[in-house]
């Protein structure tokens, strides 16, 4: 989408848009940062409802999908916008997204390691578990956009066959 088309869609004049943003790439970065910070706030509120590290991990997966439910068009828009930036700028924008959540992912992995140490999580490859959850989180979101895939059957399967068996303490209802 050109700056002119974007200005029209936002019901602004192009010079007004250019006054606030020097380039289309800057708009994409600001939109992505805003979306990611809003999403992070939403996730933290959902995750903090639980104490057990496995419950928190599962809450994170569900919260990401709940956050985007019914708003899948913004995923398409941002993906297309990022793709138009060129390889170098695209990598910079993706790095912003990774930066927002990387500290949280590391902390969550540490909570699981602590749970293993404390005897409330079964021993497992924490890095592989975190990669699996990230893959399911992102992949299912893309499948939702592309094919309309339902979140719940995958959530239930992952809970029943992967996450719940890792809990040593009494499972909570999901």
What would you say this structure looks like, in words?
The protein is mostly helical and 174 residues long. The chain has one domain: Orthogonal Bundle (Tetracycline Repressor, domain 2), CATH 1.10.357. Helices cover 76% and strands 0% of the residues. The protein contains 8 helices and no strands. It has helices at 3-9, 14-20, 24-47, 53-68, 72-83, 87-118, 126-147, 152-163. Helix 4 packs parallel to helix 7. The longest helix is centred in the middle third of the chain and has 32 residues, at 87-118.
Average pLDDT number: 85
Report the structural category. Answer: mainly alpha
Please estimate the helix content: over 70%
The end-to-end distance, rounded to whole angstroms, is: 42 Å
- Count of strand segments: 0
Question: Could you say what the CATH architecture is?
Answer: Orthogonal Bundle
Order of helices and strands: HHHHHHHH
Shape call: elongated
Helix run count? 8
Poorly predicted runs: none
Portion of residues in beta strands equals under 5%
Defining key terms:
174 residues; mainly alpha; elongated
Concise account of the structure shown:
The protein has helices spanning 3-9, 14-20, 24-47, 53-68, 72-83, 87-118, 126-147, 152-163. It has 174 residues and is mostly helical. The protein is elongated and about 60 Å long.
Q: Helix and strand layout, with pairings?
A:
Blueprint: H1 3-9, H2 14-20, H3 24-47, H4 53-68, H5 72-83, H6 87-118, H7 126-147, H8 152-163
């Amino acid at each position: 989408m050109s700056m002119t088309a974007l200005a029209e869609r936002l019901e602004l004049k192009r010079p007004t848009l250019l006054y606030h943003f020097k380039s289309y790439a800057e708009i994409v970065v600001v939109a992505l940062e805003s979306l990611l910070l809003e999403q992070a706030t939403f996730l933290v509120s959902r995750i903090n409802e639980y104490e057990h590290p496995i419950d928190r991990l599962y809450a994170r997966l569900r919260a990401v999908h709940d956050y985007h439910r019914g708003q899948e068009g913004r995923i398409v828009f941002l993906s297309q916008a990022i793709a138009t930036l060129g390889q170098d700028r695209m990598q910079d924008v993706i790095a912003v997204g990774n930066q927002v959540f990387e500290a949280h992912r590391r902390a969550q992995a540490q909570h699981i390691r602590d749970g293993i140490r404390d005897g409330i999580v079964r021993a497992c490859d924490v890095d592989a578990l975190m990669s699996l959850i990230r893959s399911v989180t992102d992949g299912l979101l893309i499948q939702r956009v592309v094919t309309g895939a339902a979140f719940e059957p995958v959530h239930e399967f992952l809970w029943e066959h992967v996450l719940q068996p890792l809990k040593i303490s009494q499972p909570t209802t999901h």
